Amino acid sequence: MGRYATFNASMLACLLESAYTPMSLLRTRDPSDYTIALIDSYAIVLDILTFYQERFANEAYLRTAINQRSVFELSRLIGYVPSPGVAATDVLAFTLSDAPGSPDNVLIPAGTRVQSVPGPGQTPQVFETSSDLVTQIGLNALPAQTFVAWQLTADNSTWVVGTVNNINIGDTLLFVKATNSVPDTTGPGDVHIVTAVTLDSANGITRITWNSALSSSFAPGMTADQVCLYVFRKKAALYGAQALNPATLVAGGVGSMIGGAPVTQGDDWSFASYQDGTYQLNLDASYTGLTPAANTPQWAVFIGSQSTAFFAVTGAEESNPNLYTLTTKTTRLTFGFGEVLTAGASVSLDNALSAFEADTRNVTVYVQSVQLQLANMPQVQWSSNPGYAMQDGMLAPVGGTEVAVIGGQQIVAGQPLSVSGKRVRLQVLPGANASFAPAGSSASLGVTDNQVFLVGGYPPVASANGAPVWSVVTLSGLAGYLQVEDGSVRLLPSDKNDAVASEASAVTTPSVLGDMTTLNLDGMLARLYDAGTVSVNANAVNSSNGETVQELLGSGDASQVALTFTLKQLPLTYVSSTSTNGTQSTLQIWVNNLQWHEVPNLLSAGPADRVFVTRVNSAGYTVVQFGDGTNGARTPTGQMNIRAVYRKGIGAAGMVAAGQLSQPLDRPQGLKSATNSSAAAGGADPATADDARARAPLPTLTIGRIVSLEDYQNYALNFGGIARAVASWTYFNRTRGVFLTIAGANGATFQPTDTVIVNLIESLHRYGNKYVQLQVASYDPVPFQIAANVLVDGDHDSTLVRAQVWQNLVNALSFDARLLGQNAAAGDIIEIVQSTPGVVAMQLKALFLTGSSPGAVPGQLCAAGASPPRGAQMLLLDPACQNAIGAWS
Fold first, then answer.
1. Residues contacting residue 108 through CB under 8 Å, at least 6 positions apart
2. Which of 75, 140, 285, 655 is a Cys-bridge partner for 696, taking CB atoms 3.0 to 4.6 Å apart?
3. The pTM is what?
4. Are residues 115 and 229 in the same domain?
5. What is the pLDDT of residues 258-280, one digit of tens each?
6. Residue range 44-75, pLDDT digits in tens
7. Do the domain assignments include residue 476?
8. How far, in Å, CA of 347 to CA of 38, rounded?
């Protein structure tokens, strides 16, 4: 190694050495001499050769190689194949037209295309369905189950069918125990007075509230076939209640009295006409509609000055007792059973009726009972409520890992879904210690009493001080984080003007009960929805980025060895799979209508094997190469007999947002629309030289099998679409297993239903021990903010230096430079700032998690490790704090 001067001087010096005696007589050093000129020219040649050798020497080592091809070829020597990238995946939900004449069922074939509406700076992306889907009109929008079968509750209210039941405050209600919806003629029963009536016109039901708790005979949980409820239409009195007082009729000296008159002047009538064994009493007037009909019992309620009772009416007839100076006709009721509700012990029917007749002046009788049809009740009991207050009568929100819908009996396990609805509202109660930090801002805003937000994410996460932090959206549309103490919020139903949100999920096990289907999901819903607005679209299917291309490559030639063709479209699509590297090519090669198959290399192929290999040229196009007749068959001679079917499109460009995929390019008859309810996931660009340099050793560490905990981590890191991974031991009940946290390219997160996670789990089971319990979860990106003052050297531009400080912080604290579970230390931040040219000193004023309130600067922010079911955290610099890098004056 050397340069021109050293090479030239070295060769000139050799002329004087004894080993080169014939040249020792050459004394001249004149450059015009032929010999000296020859030495000079060779010195130049050697200088040029060593110049390039120095450059090429770097390309022979993986760590120092600069050229991408050098890195890729070196990594191939140890069996590493650079990732070709992987297509993004998403769930497409289709809606069928319900117009008259539209088909009830529509086949959506595999490969059906839906194109995105690009945003600023984006290009349209085409997604294709991954499998056939038979869609049904009935699965367009399954409503959430918002009602439950009627049962008694602990509160003093219930629901009945209808809104025109003519029920008013003050009406009397009778509860009678029943068997198979048939009232027991011997009770027990209970009587109450209506105190409130609430109509729900939208659902055609009425809520009735009464005055006091039910008796112990009617326990909470009793069902509609165990209770009959009646309301009484007529209010009456007993015969004689309106009779004039005898004192106004009996004059002094009159010795004879009319029937029923008292013995002593001034006493009231002796109401004692009841005859034991008759079980009959007369009402004060004649009433119609009191005769019981078949299967329609009639009841009467007696409320006197001393007791309350109810009686089963077995007959009603017109009568004229002609007592107490009264000659009007009345209705005589015959009773078959009675129960005095206020008596401490059982009272016979004769004694009960006799006692009420004796108290005629004070007895009120309620007759003409009408049975009320008990209605399915609004689902207000939220079984998974962790203790949040809810508005009275609010439907239980939809969230967590299950959704109950009306219908959907055709849904099977593994079916993708689109869940949509309005988000629940969150009200901050008066006196709460709360603060709101808008997303993209380092400032915290005050929260007013009773301020209302939309719940943007659920469940809330714990801040550094333990207070819950809610992901919320203000009513004006400003997203951010609400930090508020437990017990200081109340959940409210959505408003008619609230926007509809949606997300994708998938069914693990459906459970059918009557017309209701409970869909157990394979992951928690990301939001908390108002149940009355929720609908589930089960006409959904998985899809992936990339558009199918059919292309004639050319003509086969059996005389040519290693025949090659180049695909005309790029980039070739690779989809997520369960292979060791997590990708699978979509390229199919057909020769004379026979399919040939791609292999990693041709070394093990026989002379008759219909195989080919691919590589990517410097321009990014895919080159297809066939065999030479020894390793792999040659292509048969023919005219344009070689064709390719493949898809084009790959990488981060396919990471479309929710709702962007809305333009069906293929429209089977009956299809109305299509959309993606969640953002696409799993897309990754082809590997770069840096990627290959870092990951080249991974295949040799696992050798295609998974044994140790580190193998799980290394295997995942080499899986297409995964940029970060960390594995840890955990326990599933009493069994030890592996918990794996993963992060996608460019910091993308995953949902449990995403294809990358599904394929990774299957691949880990295939190449590892399938009996080891395994759970895979997406990482948890946690933004943090800093505030600092920077003192800039007077000879430097302060604005430019502070801009460079920010750029250095972004480079060091962004996703590509961070690890899962890595803490954010104040010392590291100070070092980054201080190492920026032009910075004399800096003052770190704040270091805190976004959404929490800044306090004293901690030594470091700690990232939580994996804690099933939550993945490990990654602390990332929040772009919102850029303006917090100020000048130190």
1. 94, 129, 132, 133, 134, 135, 539, 541, 668, 671
2. 75
3. 0.80
4. no
5. 555 555 555 778 787 777 878 88
6. 999 998 888 877 888 888 888 888 889 998 99
7. no
8. 138
